[in-house]
Amino acid sequence: MTILTPILILSALTFILGLCILLASKKFHVKSDPLIDTVILMLPGANCGACGYPGCAQFAEILVKTRDTSKICPVGGNDLSYELGRILGIKMDDAKPLSCIVLCNGNKTTTKFLADYKGIHDCWAVKEILPSVKQCAYGCVGLGSCVEACKYDALKIVDGLIKVIEENCVGCGVCIGKCPQHVLKLTEKKVKKYHVACSSVDKGAITRKYCTNGCIGCMLCVKACKFDAVKVENFCAIIDDSKCVNCGLCAKVCPVKCIHLTEYAMASKKIAVKKTDDNCGGCEMPCSVKGLGEDGTLGY
Amino acid sequence: MKEVLLVMVSAIFINNVIFARFLGICPYMGVSKRISTASGMGMAVTFVMTFATAITFILNKFVLIPFHIEYLQTIMFILVIASLVQIVEIALKKISPALYQALGIFLPLITTNCAILGVAILSIQNEYSFFISVLFAFCSGLGFCLAIIIFSGIRERIEDADIPECFKNIPIALITAGILAMAFMGFSGLVK
């Protein structure tokens, strides 16, 4: 009897509670929009946050509820916008394809090093004790804190300098916040694009001493440009995208060859998301509730 | 009347669930990044804590004690709390979608919050009456609210502060929580 009573009572309690939950779920059933689930399936599912929402589920919910044509998934681009618009019965705005560029040109051979750094392999750790690993305090540190952040395998370190793999970059902009030097920048994709791959604001003579690839602010590109698209600010040239016609004259005259041409394939492509662990990164704690990020009920 | 006041002050300040009993540390660290989410969590905990203690008190008095199975207290209470949270969540979704949105994911997370179970067991150990038990639970919830809101306010400021990269987020939060707990030690001994 001493064994039977607790077993019976516990079973009875479990049964009653189970019944209560069943009744409650029947009585308080709420219909959810199946369209939201469809839209979630269509989105890339990287939860990168480029759209301004914490994840794809939140974006889908807002999109379905508001039918706002200006809500764009920058990762999916025009094709996805078209498909989403078709399903929701609205014409979505054009998505401008974006891509990352590197505003630094100083690799191992061209830029002098400040020290033989053997500490924690992280750009931010370096910045705590030094201006940079290299003598240039403005360029890429080259330890790849941004590489980890990229969900699309679009960044890698080559010769101590960050390189963007254009065909993988979707322009989500997650890497930008991970760079202590701000050498990564989002720009609109064009078939041909010129940009100044340097962010040094030192005077030309000083820049010249530590980096043979750095912009020295010589004004040759400004004089060469017939469209008034290039100007020099703080001893570093800047190209105005809206005025640039991609003639390439500035790149020809540049004595340090720091004006780079990138040619983008404008055709749409399939997006491959790098598989990471279950933690979405939305909160700091690894969550115990499975699929917390997917169910769209996140309160923050 | 004196007892009521003592229970209230003791539950909120002196024997604060977080700072004195170290219960419910998980949500305290996890959802205290912003004041809005922290107050949402605090509200949800207070709500469930009061409700759960009332039900577990009845369960204890009319099931556990008559059948002499007090040793099943922990598992029974966990069962009741978990299903209670589920039912409350389902009901809230229908009755008050606004409140459901405000509490958001915190409501189901409370299922595994040790502070709820802790307060339910404590009020039975202290042999409180039904009314005092519920009051004790409500005030413990308020104490939790107080702790998490103070903490999230500090953390919002810390986010803007220039602190070394290696201390950012969790490390500095743990240090802050420690200092905050020490500050609350000043209340200890106020009520015997």
Question: Could you give the topology of this structure?
Answer:
The complex is a heterodimer of chains A (300) and B (192).
Chain A: H1 4-27, H2 34-42, H3 56-66, H4 77-88, E1 98-102, H5 123-129, H6 145-149, E2 155-158, E3 161-164, E4 184-188, E5 192-196, H7 204-210, H8 220-224, E6 230-233, E7 236-239, H9 249-253, E8 259-263
Antiparallel strand pairs in A: 1-4, 2-3, 5-8, 6-7
Helix pairs in contact in A: 2-3
Chain B: H1 2-14, H2 25-30, H3 35-64, H4 73-95, H5 97-103, H6 106-109, H7 114-125, H8 130-160, H9 170-184
Helix pairs in contact in B: 1-8, 3-4, 3-7, 3-8, 4-5, 4-7, 7-8, 8-9
Features:
heterodimer, A: 300 residues, alpha+beta, 3-methyladenine DNA Glycosylase II, Chain A, domain 3, Alpha-Beta Plaits, 2 domains, two-stranded antiparallel ribbon, 8 strands, 28% helix, 12% strand, elongated, disordered C terminus, B: 192 residues, mainly alpha, 9 helices, 73% helix
Fold and architecture overview:
The complex is a heterodimer of chains A (300) and B (192). Chain A contains nine helices and eight strands. Chain A has 300 residues and is α+β, with helices and mostly antiparallel strands. Chain A folds into two domains: 34-88, 3-methyladenine DNA Glycosylase II, Chain A, domain 3 (Orthogonal Bundle); 98-263, Alpha-Beta Plaits, CATH 3.30.70.20. In chain A, the strands form four sheets. In chain A, strands 1-4 form a two-stranded antiparallel ribbon. In chain A, strands 2-3 form a two-stranded antiparallel ribbon. In chain A, helix 2 (34-42) packs across helix 3 (56-66). Chain A is elongated. With 192 residues, chain B is mainly α. Chain B has one domain (2-23, 36-187). Helix content of chain B is 73%, strand content 0%. Chain B has nine helices and no strands. Classes of the chains: A alpha+beta (300), B mainly alpha (192).
